[in-house]
Specification:
This protein has 226 residues and is an alpha/beta fold. It has 2 domains: 146 residues, Rossmann fold (3-Layer(aba) Sandwich), CATH 3.40.50; 68 residues, DNA polymerase, domain 1. It is built from 9 helices and 6 strands; from the N terminus they run βαααααβαβαβαββα. Strands 3-2-1-4-5-6 form a 6-stranded parallel β-sheet, covered by helices on one side. Helix 1 crosses helix 4, helix 3 crosses helix 4 and helix 4 runs parallel beside helix 6. The longest helix has 19 residues. The radius of gyration is 17 Å and the shape is globular. The N and C termini lie close together (8 Å).
Amino acid sequence: MLKAVVFDFDGIIVDTEPLHYKTFQKILESLGAGFSWDEYVEKYMGFDDRDAFREAFRSNGLELDDKKLVHLVSQKATLFQEVASEGVSSYPGVVELIRSLSGKIPLAICSGALRSDIEPLLLMLSIQDAFDSVVTADDVIASKPDPASYSLAILRLQQLFPGQQITPSSSVAIEDTPSGISSAKGAGLKVLSVTNSYPAEELQSADRVVDSLASLTLEDLRQLLP
């Protein structure tokens, strides 16, 4: 029986990837570490900010110490808020799905974005109270595809709902990237993947792949479990 649903954020709830890309370029191009949109999709999209900066510097033969990394992550967080304040769009059907599930089944977000990136956008979409737990890049050391963030999301739901017997194998993750699928699978969750960011052939490790969350129901999610 399905016990919990865990949503990725970027690429599942909101189309923020172009905003993240734009913000990275504002910082990195002047440092000689910029990259193209195709490179972002192919290499960087699954990273959290820390690993994206590390990879950009590594790929360009530039040194990056911990102090500078902390500064860059903080700088990007500030710039992202400025870019996002111009407005974001949710993906078709996702807000309706979240509202239909909230209160009926434990819900969490598991994202590689910063909490400061996520919370204002949830407020814009009026779903700030829909989730029981939100796990972000602030909460874990390793980013997706490492399973740490999904393991923590399930642990927090277990602590919030001790009588509901929530386990990874009784939970479904909703993801849009190969690294996100690997993270959720590594933590033991079933995965529904959406072709918002990658074509279906690159998401085949998921338990089910759909083109949209529009019209998806709780019963559809339950069917992913034995």
